Amino acid sequence: MKNILFTGAGGYIGSHTAFTFLSNLDSNITVIDNLSSGFIENIEFLKYKFKDRISFIKLDLSNENEMKDLFKNNIFDAVVHFAASLIVEESTIKPLLYYLNNTKNTLALINLCIEFGVNKFIFSSTAAVYGEPKKIPVSEGTQLMPINPYGNSKMMSEIILKDTSKAYKNFNYVALRYFNVAGALSQNEFRNTKYGLGQRSKNATHLIKIACECATNKREVMSIFGDDYNTKDGTCIRDYIHIDDLALAHLSSYEFLQNNKQSEVFNVGYNNGYSVKEIINKVKEISNIDFKVLNASRRSGDPANLVADNSKILSLTSWKPKYNDINYIIKSAYDWEINLGK
Ligand code: UDP
């Protein structure tokens, strides 16, 4: 049976994608994660559901010797690379951490793929590579001009992938530029058990997660970071995609790499923009809880408007989003938050 290496599948997107791969493919998965921001609970859930089709090694990508042994001891059909630092504001304070964790570790991983002949690579990139795009929705051909170290660290990794695939003809990659992801696993056979998958967070920074924490009484108050942007209501606009659809985009990318010996970059979003105020109001409406919201100053590194032109992934891959509905996404995140308990 084929074995696929997942880095960082203890995290939110990686764990849901592992679930999607194992549910749809006849393959095994090896997960490596240093558990710095990932959760052992996610790995335990995957093991409970898929038994020995998934194996887990606690390993940091910067550990060169152990990484090399991993590639020596396994034959991987593909690498799906999630492990990264991903908080925009933190990246403005600790840029070197982001260049080490995101760019340097990705370079080392690609290097191992070349050395050991692993020729399919799926990379978690981000809409942050666009910076402040002039034209919305933004398409993949737009010039990349990140405005924070997080976006820079991912853009550099994309450049490394591009140059590598040009030089090594057998090596192909898909870079997925994620827009804003939210929600929890829709397959709800695990609701109200200790198992399940959704967004866990040691210190949440994401808008829908934070608003759901307010609606479930885990937080007393939240802030709107800036209401003086040049947008319809002054707050930032984002394209929110359901986690299951984002996970499916990885599966479609894997199939794309199997069927086409070519590399591509795809936006993954719905081409729908919602403002921070609209999202907060929807969380209040769906939960029927009127929590307290303050106005605060802008958060460093935030672009005003990011909405995906998703026509490329829709036309070149088999990806068919199932949950393009902001009410469903918020309900999914809210139900999960209730289920998580205190
Ligand atoms: N945001 C906010 N209050 C919060 C969290 C986020 O106003 O408590 C805003 C943030 O400034 C941005 C948008 O919500 O404009 C989405 O932020 P998030 O961190 O969810 O995702 P990002 O777009 O930074 O990846």
Task: Give descriptors for this structure.
single chain, 11 helices, globular, 342 residues, Rossmann fold, alpha/beta, UDP-galactose 4-epimerase, domain 1, binds uridine-5'-diphosphate, three-stranded mixed β-sheet, 41% helix
Structure commentary:
The chain has helices spanning 12-24, 40-50, 64-73, 88-93, 95-116, 149-167, 207-215, 243-259, 276-287, 311-316, 326-340; strands spanning 2-7, 27-33, 54-58, 78-81, 120-126, 172-178, 180-182, 221-225, 237-238, 240-242, 264-268, 274-275, 292-296, 305-306. With 342 residues, it is of the alpha/beta class. It has two domains: 2-181 and 240-268, NAD(P)-binding Rossmann-like Domain (Rossmann fold), CATH 3.40.50.720; 184-238 and 271-340, UDP-galactose 4-epimerase, domain 1 (Alpha-Beta Complex). The strands form four sheets. Strands 3-2-1-4-5-6-11 form a seven-stranded parallel beta sheet, sandwiched between helices. A three-stranded mixed beta sheet has the order 12-9-14. The protein has a two-stranded parallel sheet with strand order 7-10. Helix 2 links the parallel strand 2 (27-33) and strand 3 (54-58). The model has no long low-confidence stretch (mean pLDDT 96). The structure holds uridine-5'-diphosphate (UDP). Residues 88, 180, 205-207, 210, 222-225, 236, 238, 276, 299, 302 line the site of uridine-5'-diphosphate.
